[in-house]
UniProtKB/TrEMBL annotation:
Protein name per the record: Uncharacterized protein
Length: 105
């Protein structure tokens, strides 16, 4: 695959996110504080900006997601909202549960 400006941006973004995750998991308390105060609001802003592209109606159908794989006859539940909900609730609970177990044991 050719190296484009966009692929460089994509790589750089993923690298930044991986660094944030790594620091959150392994960093000391001071690092965690900076992450929470400085980086977390930025990540929240990014999630909000992405979700702004998706405006599901009361049935969860989303015009942005409708343009994708779902046919016009089928309702298209907004995948962005579903993913955000799933990751922030289900995955988040598993992670904090795991951390709790590690700190106890
Ligand atoms: Zn959507």
């Amino acid at each position: 695959m050719a190296v484009t400006v966009f692929s460089q941006l994509d790589k750089s973004l993923h690298s930044h996110l991986a660094t944030l995750t790594d620091l959150a998991e392994r960093g000391d308390d001071q690092t965690a504080l900076v992450l929470a105060r400085v980086e977390l609001p930025r990540v929240v802003a990014v999630v909000k900006a992405l979700l702004d592209e998706h405006q599901p109606d009361e049935h969860g159908r989303c015009a942005t997601c409708k343009r994708g794989w779902f046919s016009r006859r089928m309702p298209a539940p907004c995948r962005a909202y579903l993913s955000a909900q799933l990751i922030l609730t289900v995955v988040g609970q598993e992670t904090s549960h795991g951390k709790h177990l590690r700190s106890v044991g």
